[in-house]
Design brief:
Length: 520
């Protein structure tokens, strides 16, 4: 689920007709002062983080004047609260609260319908409310075809002993609340507290929405950079990785950085899983050996070779890791030679100098292990391939042994450098990149093996040179599966005439920054 900040959630509520406190987001103490002056009343300062219990963390403070607000904000900005560096503060009018309520919406997977929860007691988590005041909590399932009707909202609230004009106000808020959540494909939503002020008006004093990952593409207006449920803002590298997943539907690619800074003092490795259960077992195996994970990565669901290549390049954009460990399900249904080719291309481009253990159990694992063994013999580091009969524990042990043999080596991030190709190179676009062939080298080719290597049969010989056998449009739409087989064959067995350019937007700039920091 993709989380929204409080100020984003309240904007949606306000647009949906629900009353929220007057306020704005500030990114500096000076903006805090200006906003407080515009509000012209005592204010509350609320740090914008994806955390509960902000008051206990010092993240909710009150100010009577703009000067007091600015002074308090200056002490908050730039501080770290758990995984957040505070760079946004919501400044709102301080409400005069008479009573507090709770309203929440979640998806009930067992009933396959939204579940609306209301409590006549608010201010703390619903779990605590249900334990301390079970009589105050009421629940109702919602038919997604008809939505939440006014009378259903009234009945829900009435069961908590609320009546009269307040019942009507709250039921109106709940129906609008559901409509907002439905409009934006919220997986969960919460108003806590929902408050009644001394002038008898109902406000959403706090609100948080999370959007379904698979619906984020329908809501570009929300500005969600990464459709993942993080406990902190995504890192630069995570944003780069998400763009790969977002634009390539073939299989899944999940990347999460687990260390803010990879220190040479610790045994950090790059982790590349494939399949949730197998990846968890593999993580346990390396952690039990005293390794630390710089990242968690998963490529599964039959990913293309190009996707695995990009995943490997992103993993290897983390400096100071000691080794590369790839291991997932031992019985994966995906064709493992695609993953092997993706790693071969990435490791050669990186001139990998740290050891790697690659466990590719599943379909065609023998072919995958053969590819690794054949084409990774000449890189600086030792890389070993294993299959389903080799346990994660054994593979973790081999990684430890290889790292000891290679004791001084740490991974050094290199700039992104594309090879120089002739201007008149033959090329065509693929789904996510571009395949180039230097036809000047083709006359010296003895085998024309790139044609046989292309199992998708999109290449043919024309005057002794490989060209497309399908239209450019068909190749770009996916006829070229980006299996990398033609490039690998040509590179290692023939004239090194084929190069498949698979750009990773933002990675060049990211690596430039890493290289710059390493020299400081």
């Amino acid at each position: 689920m993709a989380r929204l900040y409080e100020f984003q959630s309240k904007k949606l509520l306000k647009e949906g007709g629900i009353r929220v406190p007057e306020g704005e987001v500030a990114c500096s103490p000076d903006e805090v002062r200006q906003i407080t002056q515009r509000i012209g009343k005592p204010v509350v300062l609320k740090i914008q983080v994806w955390l509960t219990g902000r008051a206990g963390l010092g993240g909710i403070q009150f100010a009577e004047t703009s000067e007091e607000a600015e002074n308090k904000a200056s002490k908050i900005f730039g501080t770290k609260v758990k995984n957040f560096v505070i760079d946004k503060i919501l400044i709102e009018e301080k409400l005069k609260i008479k009573s507090e309520y709770f309203a929440g919406l979640v998806i009930d997977d067992s009933k396959k319908s939204p579940l609306l929860i209301f409590s006549s007691v608010g201010g703390t988590g619903i779990e605590e409310i249900a334990r301390s005041h079970p009589e105050s909590v009421s629940r109702a399932s919602i038919d997604v075809l008809t939505g939440l009707k006014d009378y259903e909202a009234r009945n829900l609230i009435r069961r908590t002993k609320i009546s009269g004009k307040l019942l009507l106000q709250l039921s109106d808020v709940l129906t609008k609340f559901y409509n907002v959540a439905r409009q934006y494909d919220a997986r969960s939503a919460e108003m806590n507290p929902l408050v009644l002020t001394e002038d008898n008006l109902v406000y959403a004093a706090d609100c948080h929405l999370t959007i379904d990952d698979y619906a984020v593409f329908r809501h570009p207006e929300l500005g969600i950079e990464v459709a993942r449920e993080f406990d902190r803002p995504p890192t630069w590298l995570e944003k780069i990785a998400y763009q790969v997943e977002e634009k390539d539907h073939r299989g899944t690619f999940y990347f999460f950085q687990m260390a803010e800074e990879v220190s040479k003092k610790d045994k950090f490795i790059g982790f590349h899983g494939a399949g949730g259960g197998g990846s968890m077992m593999s993580m346990d195996a390396v952690l039990n050996r005293g390794f630390k994970l710089a990242n968690y990565c998963d490529t599964s669901g039959n990913p293309s070779a190009s996707k695995v290549y990009r995943a490997s390049k992103i993993i290897l954009s983390q400096p100071n890791i000691r080794g590369y460990f790839a291991s997932g399900s031992g019985v994966a249904s995906q064709e493992q030679y695609h993953s092997a080719r993706g790693m071969v291309k990435a490791f050669h481009e990186e001139k990998l100098s740290i050891p790697g253990i690659i466990r590719l159990g599943g379909n065609f694992e023998e072919k995958a292990i053969e590819i690794l063994g054949t084409y990774l013999k000449d890189i600086p580091a030792k890389v070993e391939g294993y299959g389903r009969d080799d346990s994660p524990e054994f593979c973790a042990q081999r990684l430890e042994e290889l790292i000891k043999e290679n004791q001084p080596a740490y991974h050094e991030v290199k700039p992104v450098v594309d090879p120089a190709l002739p201007k008149n190179c033959y090329f065509f676009e693929t789904m996510t990149g571009k395949l180039s062939i230097d036809h000047n080298k083709c006359p010296d080719c003895r085998t024309k093996g790139c044609i046989e290597a292309c199992k998708a049969e999109i290449l043919k010989l024309e005057d002794g040179k490989p060209v497309l056998s399908v239209s450019q449009e068909e190749a770009k739409k996916g006829k070229c599966t980006e299996c990398l087989a033609c490039e690998i064959f040509c590179t290692f067995h023939e004239q090194d005439a084929i190069f498949i350019h698979l750009p990773i937007p933002g990675l060049r700039e990211y690596r430039e920054e890493i290289v710059k920091k390493s020299k400081e």
